[in-house]
Design brief:
Number of domains: 1
CATH class: Alpha Beta
Largest sheet: 7 strands, mixed
Structural class: alpha/beta
CATH architecture: 3-Layer(aba) Sandwich
Order of helices and strands: EHEHEHEHHEHEHEEEEE
Radius of gyration: 17 Å
Strand order of the largest sheet: 3-2-4-5-1-8-9
Strand content: 15-25%
Shape: globular
Length: 233
């Protein structure tokens, strides 16, 4: 049975890395002594070792060790043997590119379907959807495919931002871009605001955090989903 935390972000304003969600992660990874960290998204070009160290420092607070996937001889074996998995944020194009390069997309699907607990933040959450096509990131590399893990039947737009009515910026809003996506695509998109996350247990998907999320479907007006309610597409 799937067991996932799909979070909009790793860090909320005024809080340390993963700090806001650590109580939830302590329960999510209960009984697990070590998790596998996938640092491929590399925010700001940080090294794999540096990024893994950041994850280690956070998980130490709840008594869980962390080892980076790049520290193993075989990425596939690392995924198969992992007690739990965390994929961090950064650039989604590079993350997906590396997942395909290491040939671990299918094995990730298999272990997550079988119940290996998973945490994704930002880019690591984008890959839980049907495709990565609703990322906000620059296309710095060209992955072999935009298809991702499909653990949920819709796409994620992490760090979703509402228009600022006082802003003089005349560029496209996040909502406008998602509507452009729906001119050519049918997959629903969930805009996850900062500090919000999804708890996935089997086929149940529940929105958590203090804020609502914005659900977009083709040819319909977007709707606000309240926290602690089931997300149904």
């Amino acid at each position: 049975m799937k067991k996932l935390i799909v979070a909009s972000t790793s860090t909320v304003h005024g809080s340390g890395y993963l700090e806001y969600i650590l109580p939830t992660l302590e329960q999510h990874f209960k009984g697990i002594s070590e998790i596998l960290f996938i640092p491929f998204a590399r925010p700001g070009g940080i090294s794999y070792d540096g990024y893994t160290e950041k994850a280690k420092e956070a998980f130490e607070k709840i008594g869980i060790a962390v080892k980076g996937i790049h520290e193993f001889d075989s990425a596939k074996d690392a995924v198969k043997q992992a007690q739990g998995i965390f994929t961090g944020g950064g650039n989604t194009f590079e993350l997906v590119n590396q997942l395909y390069k290491h040939d671990i997309v299918e094995v990730l699907k298999e272990v997550l379907q079988s119940g290996t607990p998973y945490l994704g933040t930002s880019a690591g959450s984008n890959i839980c959807g049907v495709t990565m096509m609703n990322t906000n990131d620059m296309p710095i590399v060209y992955p072999p495919s935009f298809d991702t893990l499909g653990m949920i039947a819709f796409n994620i737009n992490a760090h979703y931002l509402d228009p600022d009515p006082s802003s003089t910026h005349m560029g496209e809003t996040r909502e406008t871009r998602i509507k452009e996506y729906h001119v050519f695509n049918e997959t629903a998109v969930l805009g996850l605001r900062e500090g919000s996350w999804l708890e996935v247990s089997g086929e149940s998907i529940v929105l958590k955090g203090e804020l609502t999320a914005r659900l977009f479907k083709p040819s319909t007006e977007p709707i606000e989903l309240e926290s602690n309610t089931e997300v149904s597409i």
